[in-house]
Amino acid sequence: MSTRLLRRRPARIGSAVVIAIILLLLAVALGWAGIAAVAASGSSAGAVTAPLTDSGAGLDSLDHVHWGSAAVIAVGAILAVLGLIAVILGVSPGARRITSMQAAAPDHIGDLEVAVPTSALSHLAAAAADGVDGVEGVKAASNATSTIVTFSTPIRDTDPIRDEVEAVVRQRFDSISFDRTPKVKVQARRSKS
Amino acid sequence: MRRTAAGANRTGLIIVGLLALLIGLAVLAIGLGFAASILPGWEPGADLGLATSVLALPYSALVAIIAAVILAVIGLRWLSVQIPRKDFAKPFRMQVDARKGLTTVTAEVIAEAVADDLESTDGVSDAQVILRGTARSPELLIHIDADERADIDAVVAEVADRVAGNAALALGAPLNAVALEVGIARTRSRRQRSVTL
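Predict the joint structure of the above. Result:
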């Protein structure tokens, strides 16, 4: 099978929704100005040929604004920056959202693809760390190649617990046949007692 | 697991982004005086009348309305494709000879049966299944929520061997592809996992 069934990279849904909404707002503004201009022309013969400046939206006043004014330059800069961000979002592949696992395909499966989402890596790491004595609370954040575990403890000397948490999380990850086992980094935080 | 409009989103972002970038750079070039040498008259001291004169042309209101409709259609269409789709296979035609009768099975029914089979697996608390492809070349997309303490490799092996085997047996054909996404069932706190004696 040439294409993967599981999506590895973000689909840019949020960015696309924002741009689609901006397009819709632009359409509403243009449509409103156009209809206002047509309505202002009065006669049906003049309605078709009405210029947009008849809309009463103050488009005539743009004639008195200079290209070098701060407002025009600011609009140009904002457009250029937003455009650049949109192009980068479109071109860059984005962070991988899954970590692949190795699994042997039995005879009844042509192509077997197994993966763990990065959110699941965090849950696995947090659950493993939560079982260590002395750990009060755990948070974990992961990407496809690494996991950062942050735990809180009321104990003053956090080093032994940190070592134990790191060992337990590593052991948990080593028990799973990842293509590339995620790296583990552990941070300790003293909880207020 | 569900299909999204990832390709369309990226293409749209690139097109809209390039347009905005070019317009922004052009405005900046004129406003900062870089364009005056190439386009005489387009200098920082000039007013926007050179560009806005098109708004005073006849028919410009009509053109604006048509442009608004086109933009609205593009915007609405783009928004509508953002809803992730399961895209189940069309009903499978299982009969060997259509003259002797038709046997049709919907993909949702088989997927539901596979999900039930998955949920009876040790260490699996929830499962969603999508069946795509054809009766002769089925593709199975599976998302399971495994228990956080489960042996993930054992769960994967069980799903690949037993559950996928059962699905292949039911369909009467080997599975062309199986994609398995292993999530972890969330347990909110340690208290919910423990029993006090």
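Helices of chain A lie at 13-40, 44-49, 70-91, 118-130, 159-174.
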